[in-house]
Design goal:
Radius of gyration: 17 Å
CATH superfamily: Metallo-dependent phosphatases
Shape: globular
Largest sheet: 7 strands, mixed
Number of domains: 1
Strand content: 25-35%
CATH topology: Purple Acid Phosphatase, chain A, domain 2
Length: 257
């Protein structure tokens, strides 16, 4: 009976990439985009505001892009992006509202809005997504902030509503090649609450992938679209019945130095 259920279950491919920043001198890698588009469902961290509104934060780096470049996300084949990071609020509430409007226009779901989850259906299966940022000082009130209580409660509440549950985190230390204790603690909390996949970004480096309980955890997938050379991978997963397998596809950066 178990074998029959497995054989009848659809085979669904997923693609995860790291930070996508489509402003400044960023370039779109068409070869990489082709790989992402080939998946049945794909996800990235949107590391910029899509707006012409001026920056409102006094930071060393503010990241924003012309709203017209939202089409790049469609060219990448993205189905869902996280806006829970330290740059979504660089242009304030107006910038975030513009970003969400741009994503909606492109038919791309936005995960990471406070008290809100995303559920998308692929081949009859429900994929649930939550996203959190661990940089509360660098965002706006509408963005979901990572803390132990919120992570556990959000995952537990979403678990009965979906077949596959993904928890995304913007966390860690920039430039670090290994996850820190806080990343590991949050990943464990999400896994214990019922997440199947935990995917991270923020360090701009590729960090290890491991199993935490029953969950697959990718602590950081590096940069994907950016205007600097960096580590880039595509994390592709195959989901059939309740089983997940994966591989990493390394990509050569085409960004200008």
């Amino acid at each position: 009976m178990i074998a029959a259920v497995y054989l009848l279950a659809p085979t669904i491919t997923l693609a995860f990439v790291g930070d996508v920043m489509v402003g400044r001198r960023a370039q779109l890698d068409k070869a990489a985009a082709k790989i992402v588009r080939a998946a049945d469902w794909s996800f990235a961290n949107l590391e910029c505001a899509l707006t012409v509104a001026p920056p409102v934060r006094r930071k060393l780096v503010n990241l924003q892009a012309d709203p017209k470049r939202a089409t790049w996300l469609t060219e990448l084949g993205l189905d869902c992006v996280s806006i829970a990071n330290n740059h979504a609020g660089d242009c304030g509430d107006k910038g975030l509202a513009d970003t969400l409007a741009c994503l909606a226009e492109q038919g791309i779901a936005a995960a990471g809005v406070r008290d809100r989850s995303v559920i998308q259906r692929v081949q009859g299966r429900a994929i649930g997504v939550l996203a959190f940022t661990d940089f509360p000082r660098d965002t706006v009130k509408a963005v979901a902030i990572a803390n132990a209580e919120v992570i556990s409660r959000s995952v537990r509440n979403l678990r009965p509503k979906c077949d596959l549950l993904i928890a995304s985190f913007h966390w860690g230390v920039e430039g670090a090649a290994i996850p820190n204790g806080r990343q590991k603690r949050f990943a464990k909390l999400a896994a214990q609450a019922g997440a199947d996949i935990v995917v991270g970004h923020g360090p701009h480096k590729v960090q290890p992938i491991e199993r935490v309980g029953k969950a697959l955890v990718a602590y950081s997938l590096g940069d994907f679209v950016f205007d600097r050379k960096g580590e880039r991978v595509i994390w592709t997963l195959t989901w059939k019945a309740s089983q997940l397998s994966y591989r990493l596809v390394p990509m050569v950066s085409e960004a200008k130095p």
